[in-house]
Design brief:
The chain is built from three helices and ten strands; from the N terminus they run ββββββαβαβαββ. Helix 1 runs parallel beside helix 2 (92-101). Helix 1 links the parallel strand 6 (56-59) and strand 7 (84-87). The chain is of the alpha/beta class and 139 residues long. Strands 1-10-9-3-6-7-8-2 form an eight-stranded mixed β-sheet. The model has no long low-confidence stretch (mean pLDDT 93).
């Protein structure tokens, strides 16, 4: 297995590891997810119908209204939230979402995670140090 380490900056501290779920789309909030099921429901989203529960969610960023944080807070309460978050575009929506989910989150990485991480890779997110370690699972 190949191991790759990316360095970025902390959004929310803590450490989590798990299987990556990658989308090149921005992640929707209000009206685009079912937080009780932990599933993206937006019609044209590449992850429509896919569960983010217990995954390390890798994405460009968030889209939608300020209801984004309410949806992901509900997902945390329902036990369906991602376990960590790695993203490119810092906005108040995604930062507040990471805080209300209480999950390790990193942004501002030295390389684009969307070009390196693939769904199914094993990812360790250390929010305290801003380090994301990836073990490639696909050959």
């Amino acid at each position: 297995m190949t191991k790759i380490v990316l360095h970025g900056r902390k959004v929310v501290g803590g450490r989590a590891e798990g299987e990556a779920l990658v989308t090149h789309d921005t992640v929707p909030g209000w009206g685009g997810v079912n937080p009780v099921q932990g599933v993206i429901t937006e019609t044209r989203h590449e992850l429509r119908g896919v569960s983010f529960r217990n995954k390390v969610l890798i994405c460009r960023g968030a889209k939608g209204s300020s209801g984004w944080s309410a949806m992901y807070h509900t997902a945390r309460l329902a036990g369906t939230a991602p376990i960590a978050l790695v993203f490119n575009e810092m906005t108040t929506k995604i930062a507040l979402g990471a805080v209300v989910m209480r999950i390790p989150s990193v942004t501002g990485l030295d390389r684009d995670p969307l070009e390196i991480i693939e769904t199914g890779d094993w990812v360790v997110v250390d929010g305290d140090s801003g380090v994301v370690a990836i073990e490639k699972r696909k050959t």
